[in-house]
Amino acid sequence: MILRPAVDEDSYYFLHLRNDRDSVLMSHRPALSLKEHVEWWATTTDERWVAEHEGERVGTLRVSSAGELSLVVAPEQRGKGHGVEMLRMAGYVKGRHARLIAEALPENTRSQRAFLKAGWTPLLFQWP
Ligand SMILES: CC(C)(COP(=O)(O)OP(=O)(O)OC[C@H]1O[C@@H](n2cnc3c(N)ncnc32)[C@H](O)[C@@H]1OP(=O)(O)O)[C@@H](O)C(=O)NCCC(=O)NCCS
After folding, report:
1. What's the rounded Cα separation, in Å, for the pair 49 and 121?
2. Which residue, 95, 100, 16, is CA-closest to 58?
3. Alpha carbon distance 13, 3 (integer Å)
4. CATH number at residue 58
């Protein structure tokens, strides 16, 4: 797998994965309209990366200016280890950030397993 910086041709790929059913469910954020996405793409300061496996795009990864990472693996590519591999490459995208953090909701067990398997440390508890 490689992680490469996203280019403008990847914009709709990001929107496609951002609006995937599981991505919406697991982020508790509504799907974005094309207009909202185009505005975001033009103005965001997030670093954007595309994961490629054997020459094919398999997922997207973003790191905000606060060092918050989020990733989506394309629906048809899930369960093949790509998520874990992307998260193992975190050192590569860490850049100038003091640390990288990410949020996986309690019900997102698949994501939690991926982070743990990739060597990330669980950090936060919430009550209730
Ligand atoms: C979460 C996500 C990034 C994981 O990537 P992935 O490539 O599907 O996961 P991997 O194949 O690397 O496997 C990671 C773990 O999930 C498990 N897993 C795979 N498919 C699963 C499924 N359908 N249900 C539950 N767990 C599953 C794997 O077994 C593995 O754990 P294990 O090795 O301990 O058994 C991906 O599923 C995704 O993009 N989901 C929607 C968006 C999202 O939730 N993003 C993360 C927000 S924090």
Report:
1. 22
2. 16
3. 15
4. 3.40.630.30
- Dihedral-angle region of residue 102 (phi above 0 means left; psi in -120 to 50 means alpha; beta otherwise): beta
Q: What share of the chain is helix, strand, coil (3-state, %, to 5)?
A: 40, 20, 40
Q: Which amino acids bring their CB within 6 angstroms of ligand 1?
A: 22-23, 26, 70-73, 78-84, 102, 104, 108-111, 113-114, 117
pLDDT in tens, 28-86: 999 999 999 999 999 999 999 999 999 999 999 999 999 999 999 999 999 999 999 99
Q: Is residue 124 part of a domain?
A: no
Specify the number of domains making up the chain: 1
pTM over 0.90: yes
Distance from residue 57's CA to the centre of ligand 1 (Å): 17
- Tell how far the Cα of 65 is from the centroid of ligand 1, in angstroms: 25
